[in-house]
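Re: [help] complex structure
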Amino acid sequence: MLDETQGYTTEDGRKIGGVVMEMKNITLRFGGVVAIKDISFDIREGEIRAIIGPNGAGKSSMLNVISGFYRPQEGEVWYQGALRPPMKPYKVARQGLARTFQNIALFDGMSVLDNIMTGRIRQMTAGLFAQALWKGRAEREEVENREAVEKIIDFLEIQHIRKTPVGRLPYGLKKRVELARALAAEPSILLLDEPMAGMNVEEKEDMSRFVLDVNDEFGTTIVLIEHDMGVVMDLSDRVVVMDYGRKIGDGTPDEVRRNQDVIDAYLGVAHD
Amino acid sequence: MPDQMIYAVEVFLNGLMAGVLYSLVALGFVLIYKASGIFNYAQGVLALFAALTLVGVMDGQVPFAHLINAVFGTEIHNFGWHVPALMAILLTMAVMVLLAWLVNTLIFRHLVNQEPIILFMATIGLAYFLEGFGDIMWGADIKKLDVGLPQGINGMIDEITYGIFGYGFFIDNLDLVATAVAALLVTALVIFAQVTKQGRAMRAVADDHQAALSVGISLDFIWVMVWSLAGFVALVAGIVWGTKSGVQFSLSLIALKALPVLMLGGFTSIPGAIVGGLIIGVGEKLFEFAVGPLVGGATENWFAYVLALLFLVFRPQGLFGEKDHREGVRHVLSRSRRLQDILCR
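Output below.
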């Protein structure tokens, strides 16, 4: 069963709860290639959990297993205290896992507002005709959803582009819209696949601030894949280190920094 | 007003009405293309199949009667009852939804992420299959369809115009009904696509599958929904065309008339399908009226295609289409593209 130990309080006073998701002995193969080999770790409520590792270590594959895009050959995913059966990614999303993509996956033809509204699908339950006629529950829901979305738009400081078609936005803003769409779902776990990839220093700082603020403000559990070591160490509460599909380290940023395997495999290379 | 002018106005009005009918067919194409990037060659056959099914249900025909009789040596043809039009339409719609589910489950969900040309080929296969299947199911004879739509000259317009011009315009009641139906259909579709959750999800799926999945949209559901919508539009087109000219094989050929409409209006635009249809309808009727007698008539057969060709040369995305989708359009119409390349050189 799951480790139900009590949470703890971080140095900066945030409350970290019990285990919300646990990966148990996950193995993922593509034909003969082993992308993930026997990896286990857990995610606690309210924490920022990073997965790091060199190129091709299997980080994105891990995220795809969590979000249901890949189905591991072996191992179990436990979510909110129950074993999660193999399920399609859209069902995983409806359970409250929202994600962003390394290469940005937005609806280019739709406005920023519409893009973020698609994130609210989970919160829309009114019938088709009620929606079309703008009556009763549909009207209430639409108003509520718009309010929630406007709050997120304010929060991420993208008011000025809300009516712009996403296809016309620069890269950094697209990343932010994608984050907004994921947030709109009010996810219990937010999965970010390299949120700072391809950004300049200023944009990285902005994005780091948003990630921290989201965690702070909404108490959202965040799982984060990142290349940039500096960013990861500053942001996260606990870090999983992967290399060639194996887990070689797991712990607080300080513990990971001191881990000899990690230094050899990852930091060592970086410092040479 | 000179007689020629009055005739031209009448021709213009009749052109508008004919255009509405073209638009109805083109709408089905646009719907599927927008939501799944598939150019659905089978849309015309879908209309034929819908009309066949509707007639079959209304007349209480036994499906596959010929096949059953041949195998078991029986002599059954009819259940011997007549289903009221409205109920028959609902039943036919149920059949179209079932068909949509089958088409998605058996064919298109296995072709996700394939080249547009492969999807296009699959719809050609579907078209020929459905055509034969419709024949086996309901028989190949020409049938009369009457769901109670009014037909014949509209007396009021005739009288009013006679009073004004001294010449009564001939406007068919059925065309007026078709116009009203098309207007309703388009309004409903636009509201559906813009306002409802399902409509938003449909647009999302059209844009990016992965992203759609990640926000909790079921691709299968959306695709079945889109094919059902296309089936619904096909049913409407089938009813109107079937009432006008009988339910027969040639009904499936109206799809070819939708092609130039789409090239004018753009493959991705619902208003474009309407405007494109109207332009083609009016254009070909006026052209026939003005130029036809000089060149020996029958210009209606080719006018639409020449107009479409001109559009491909000067504005390949159509009047309302998105530039991004130009590639897909060209892909599908590779023959036209080759022509275009030659012309551009």
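The longest helix of chain A spans residues 136-155.
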